[in-house]
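testing teh design pipeline on a random one, pls ignore if ur not involved
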């Protein structure tokens, strides 16, 4: 097993993924100790993994919540998934064939880029 997994050429990208901007005068570049570089690298990798987990948990909760809304709408009289989705979109003011508004709605609902969003787009 390799002791060092960091990549000096990719550190700037990793740093930017975590912080939103590129590093300047960072300890990663100023140290000559590979153990220190590896510790810094690992901490940034851990930050990315934590954020990815947070995003996945949030997406899972959003899907669960939206599916609950669909079930509730079906029980209120929509009768099926397709009609429930149409009622929900109409209630949200998303006009039929307005793809941009649909994308915004899906994003704000936390379900964009999910299989549920794909099903909704097929209906709409």
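output:
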């Amino acid at each position: 097993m390799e002791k060092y997994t960091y990549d000096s050429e990719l550190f700037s990208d990793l740093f930017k993924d975590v912080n939103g901007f590129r590093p300047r005068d960072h300890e990663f570049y100023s140290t000559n100790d590979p153990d220190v570089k590896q510790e810094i690298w690992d901490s940034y990798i851990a930050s990315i993994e934590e954020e990815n987990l947070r995003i996945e948990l949030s997406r899972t909760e959003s899907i669960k919540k939206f599916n609950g809304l669909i079930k509730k709408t079906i029980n209120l009289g929509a009768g099926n998934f397709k009609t429930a989705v149409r009622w929900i979109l109409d209630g949200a003011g998303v006009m039929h064939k307005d793809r941009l508004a649909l994308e915004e709605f899906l994003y704000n609902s936390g379900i964009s880029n999910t299989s549920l969003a794909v099903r909704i787009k097929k209906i709409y």
